[in-house]
């Protein structure tokens, strides 16, 4: 689970990627809602987000929001999570439609399938976020929601390599707006963690360099056993190295992941020694508390192609640890 912390920097990097496209389930048509008609609690909470007009519109005009008459901070965050979840379900439906109409187009089919692998994982993380907040596990919620955002971006990125129809373009625009909604929910969770329930003190999220994790945060609850950053004094559970590079437990990262216990309570640390590992590593949801520890940036590299083999066309997902 510690690997989730790596996704948090995405929030500071996320920017609009394409123009918005209308869709009956997406409440982003009016980009400038009247602040005079906006309940003060919502207006204050939305000041903590990067896309404030979208935040206000989605919370006040979406049938999925379900806000009570006098919402508290957790009510507002819960509403933002419901809106994100509802639009995520629509995004999955749109991608399934792409898959159904892509017979004979191997590359688009492949990217749509990859997209449909990661979007349910995003939904699962939003569900975990919703469950973590009432238990005051705010840092867990931040990690879960950041992962949900990363999965949505992964889907958008997949489709960008086969954006050759208006249907794909509309879906990418919808996914872009979905990321705005998810980013806003994550921003509010961050402020709740750092500044507490007083929405008047909430601020837009900082980067990791500027105190993203908030050393003075009001809540430090986390079942991850970390306040942020890589845990110190980590001992390897198993090792991975290339053939001819010494004695190790495994030769591939995937073999090491497969060896991790399901639903493990303790960290399963995989030390991946220096080298380029040309493989697609999949970590099932039941493989909890799996930690990758490499030999440094540019030294331990995991890379794999997710594209159909076509001349001149390659899609690589690469990580360096």
From TrEMBL:
Pathway: Glycan metabolism; pectin degradation; 2-dehydro-3-deoxy-D-gluconate from pectin: step 1/5. It is an enzyme of class 3 (hydrolase). Residues 1-20 form the signal peptide. It catalyses: [(1->4)-alpha-D-galacturonosyl methyl ester](n) + n H2O = [(1->4)-alpha-D-galacturonosyl](n) + n methanol + n H(+). The keyword Chaperone does not apply. Residues 37-188 form the Pectinesterase inhibitor domain. GO terms for biological process: cell wall modification; pectin catabolic process. One of its GO terms (molecular function) is enzyme inhibitor activity. InterPro entries: Invertase/methylesterase_inhib, Pectin_lyas_fold, Pectin_lyase_fold/virulence, Pectinesterase_cat, Pectinesterase_inhib_dom. Keywords: Aspartyl esterase, Disulfide bond, Glycoprotein, Hydrolase, Signal. Its EC number is 3.1.1.11. Acts in the modification of cell walls via demethylesterification of cell wall pectin. In the C-terminal section; belongs to the pectinesterase family. This is pectinesterase. It comes from Punica granatum.
